[in-house]
Amino acid sequence: MQAGAADKTIIAWDTATHQQLRVLKGHTAGVHSLALSPDGRTLYSGGADKCIRVWQTEDGRWLRSFAGAHTGFVTALAVSPDGQVLFSGCDGLFGDSAIKAWRTADGECACTTAGQAKGINMLVVSPDGTALYSASGDGMIVAREIRRGTRSFEQLGTKMKHGFLTE
């Protein structure tokens, strides 16, 4: 298990022994979001430094960064079920509130779509990888169709009011 912190670190824990395994350092500001690849071998982190970092979970080794990923704090991350796409969202307070899709193989931004008025607090990809749900501080959940190969998102139906969202 991993936990991001305001002190710019990520702490990896052994859930069986409750012992700290390692501390990952590299962000230059607080860590606000984490996402694990489906195979559990890659950890993605985003934070107030507007950067997304990629880590190897086995040894905590830093692999690469998506510098300047957003113009504001990276507050939400989610990985597609096949592990090929990382989605990121921004707070909207100190920069954009966009949602971006990144190819995990090369770190290139595949597409960007407008976020929500109060930024993005959470992203969840449907188990079949065809829909992306975003939750915002405005109390709304927006569902978007993920269209592979078209470099676009299409908003699905109505927005839903929420209190909280879980996977």
From TrEMBL:
- Sequence intervals crossing the membrane: none
- Its source organism is Cymbomonas tetramitiformis
Outline the WD repeats, range by range.
24-65
Q: Which PANTHER family does the record match to this protein?
A: F-BOX AND WD REPEAT DOMAIN CONTAINING 7 (PTHR19848:SF8), WD40 REPEAT PROTEIN (PTHR19848)
Q: Which domain of life is it from?
A: Eukaryota
The alphabetical list of record keywords is:
Repeat, WD repeat
**Protein name according to UniProt:** Uncharacterized protein
InterPro entries in the cross-refs = WD40/YVTN_repeat-like_dom_sf, WD40_repeat_dom_sf, WD40_rpt
